[in-house]
Amino acid sequence: MSKETIRVPDVGSSDPVDVIEVTVKEGDTIAPEDTIVVLESDKATVEVPAPKGGKVLGLLVKQGDKVKEGDPLLELDAEAGDGDAEEAGQEQSDRKGAEEAEPEQESNSTDEGADSEDDEQAAGGGSQTVTVPDLGDIEGAEIIEISVQDGDQVEAEQTLVVLESDKASLDIPSPAAGTVARLRVKVGDKVGTGDQLMDLDGAGGGGAKKASGDDGNAAAKDGGDKAVAKAESSPAKSAGQTQKPADQAPARQAEGRSAASASSGQPSAQVHAGPAVRKLARDTGVDLALVEGSGPKDRILKEDVHAYLKRRMEAPAGAGVAAPVDDLPDIDFSEFGPVERVELNKLRKVAARNLHRSWITIPHVTQFDDADITELEAFRKSQNKLLEKEGVKLTMLAFLVKACANALRAFPKFNSSLEKGGEALIQKDYVHIGIAVDTPNGLVVPVLRDADKKGLKEIALEMSELAAKARDRKLTPADMKGACFSISSLGGIGGTAFTPIVNWPEVAILGVSRSDTKPVWDGQAFQPRLTLPLSLSYDHRVIDGADAARFTTYLSSLLGDLRRVLL
After folding, report:
1. Higher-confidence residue: 482 or 248?
2. Cis preceding linkage at 505, omega within 30
3. Spatial distance between the Cα atoms of 364 and 475, rounded to a whole number of angstroms
4. Domains along the chain?
5. Active site residues
6. Is the whole model's pTM more than 0.85, yes or no?
7. Among 165, 267, 415, 424, whose CB has the most other CB atoms within 10 angstroms?
8. What would the pLDDT profile of 258-276 be if each residue is shown by its tens digit?
9. What is the pLDDT of residue 354?
């Protein structure tokens, strides 16, 4: 018996990383290059392959452990598994053996060229050009954010730009500390692997270190490459890992693409899962977008896929786990007349996926009501005249935000989220309200935080700033996270009522239509009153119809006399 200990290779980080998946168990026979564990750092996910085939004698780590380079992973009996491993890999080796020499030669040539270029850069005055890292099979990604400008001082690893493709968003870090000499791109540009992003001055030290053996810059770039690899769930290469034959790369990339589509044939959402899990999903016809992950950071494990299959098989016909419609016929509309195909932008695609998920997972009910805002509208107009010099304009939406914040405190069930397992409610002791904003690129929902602690003027000013950022495409992901409740106002456009879709993981959303003057009976005569239509959609798993009616009644009373907020 030839007993060997398999250890953690160089993963481009000196800090301990998490073991998020162990893909083998004691007694398994593995072939060379089989993934044995999956590691995850703050920047990347790395799959560790077996350097040789054999039989697993014992596992030295478990899911959740932290490891670093050189730590033992498992004990392997290389002799016991040689026959099986060789037999399993013989066909692949025969097919690819003749092709390995040429890719390796090209790789060595490329590495030599890169080293030569780095040496020239280190000696060339402390300036370097930051380029787009390897994006795998992504042909082009859009620049959605530039975090620096000409003249800015940056630190190593500081985010410079953010790229977005159909599959993932990727932060591009600075390879070294320095000064931004020149930006070569702008927000909205499309870039690909190797395209120039900006010039850095004062970064010569980084190049010298790399030339002298410090791999910090390489680690930074490797982290960017692996972030893409993580998003597409294609295997990431570590610095100490044996390079695979070149013709395996397209196969792995195709595996990532087909895994994303699962059973529906189209990628329905970004998912966090390893290749073994994706292969299992393909083999069983499971769309991973419908599976809830139980691993670290919601990573989907094999057990999650098996549990999903069990629930689907046990569910009665037409009930249980929702599945995407994949049997719609393809229609050639050009048979009926001239057509034009207009590609949806990324915002529309993401919104469509999120709305579809909310619609099929949340049992929606909508409660309709009218609020008498006659006095409130008169007060709003009078205050706008007084506040004109301060540059503040009170809209009806500002009053709605303040009233909803108060109502959420009075009815805490509306300020909660249902736990993924459906066993409990997560009650929130903060009130963040999302405001739907219509932009030329689609609907976005920035979040106004701590609305219950702010006055009307502060709410009006902050909403105006968020709306401007939304229209200018300057909202950050942080600006659109953490809402407890959303408001969608169509009052400026028209309509009498509608059914807004609850924005998961929230449990309710308020829709507001155009106010209208109606005759209202006061007990003696009909009086003209300005009424505001309210449409409250809610998650019926959390909120009952009586609760919804009480909420809209309370909200209407606040809008009828906002002095009640002071009580």
Report:
1. 482
2. yes
3. 29
4. 3-94 (2.40.50.100), 117-232 (2.40.50.100), 262-328 (4.10.320.10), 352-566 (3.30.559.10)
5. 540
6. no
7. 415
8. 333 433 333 344 567 776 7
9. 82
